Amino acid sequence: MVQFAAVLLRGVIATFVGLLIAGGTLTLAADRAPVPRPTLVPVVPTGPTSLRVPEVAGQAYVFAKGILQDHGLAWHVTGPVQGFAANTVSSQRPTAGTTVLDTGAPTVTLTLARNASYLERGTPENDAPYAGTAIRLPANVEPRPQTTVAPRLEPVPVPVAPRPKVVLPPTPSRPAKVATAARLPDFVVPGAPREPAKSQSLPDRVATLAAWIEKHREASAASMNHLLYEHAYVVAGARFGWWHGADALQALIGVDKRAEALWGVGSQSRRTAEKAFAEVRTRT
């Protein structure tokens, strides 16, 4: 009986040890089973986009600034002639047609020619109102040769009193026409360009800009360029003595404040408009 119990006990122990060995083998096999790894897809970085430098040589400085802003470029005036609105761009670097990398706001260097018939008043604006970046050419583009364009200074005729217009009484074959008031300058600046007759008046331009801002409440590069171009046009026109320039500047200051509230930028433009308003008001 004792011998039978001993044999039975050895059988139980052998079975238990076998189960332990089998469990350890299964666990080790499970630990050594291959774990799938995630597939890494290489990301190809996209290179910077490119911009094409426009032609501004020969343009009045005030219009050259707007052209450069519309193309996403900054500018810097170098040389003895300062950045007054009526001065003319005599040369630019890089030249027109050069392809540059879009580094943010590539800076075009301008050299101006003095418009002797225009009185330089106020403080010149020799740089863009935003930070410019370096000019970088694509690897496969060679620099274009520097060229100089003679300034196009067109004589401005002296305003004369309009001749009285004979108005015939309306007839069935000749209906009456609605008369429109001529936009006479508030004051005369020698050498200043005349206000374009077919363009919006300065007050109407500011009103259009105010309505445009309400439809573009989020800041973007395109929105900033549009605001800066319209702002420069109105300020320059008011300083040239164009019709109701002081009223337009006063409204423009309100537009700049609205841009500050919506976009968080525009303080520098507002100060420029306030300074121009003080100058124009004393001459109106």
Structural commentary:
With 284 residues, the chain is mainly alpha-helical. Among the domains are: 48-153; 202-283, no CATH class. It has 6 helices and 5 strands. It has helices at residues 2-31, 61-70, 202-215, 221-239, 245-263, 267-283, and strands at 50-52, 74-78, 88-93, 99-101, 107-113. Helix 4 (221-239) packs antiparallel against helix 5. The longest helix is centred in the N-terminal third of the chain and has 30 residues, at 2-31. The N and C termini lie far apart (132 Å). Residues 153-159 and 171-180 have low confidence and may be disordered.
Can you give the helix content as a percent range? 25-40%
Mean pLDDT: 76
How far the N terminus sits from the C terminus, by CA atoms, comes to: 132 Å
Helix-strand topology string: HEHEEEEHHHH
Structural class: mainly alpha
Q: Strand fraction band?
A: 5-15%
Main beta-sheet annotation:
3 strands, mixed
The residue ranges in which pLDDT falls below 50 over 5 or more consecutive positions are 153-159, 171-180
Short description:
The chain has six helices and five strands; from the N terminus they run αβαββββαααα.
Features:
284 residues, mainly alpha, three-stranded mixed beta sheet, two-stranded antiparallel ribbon, 38% helix, elongated
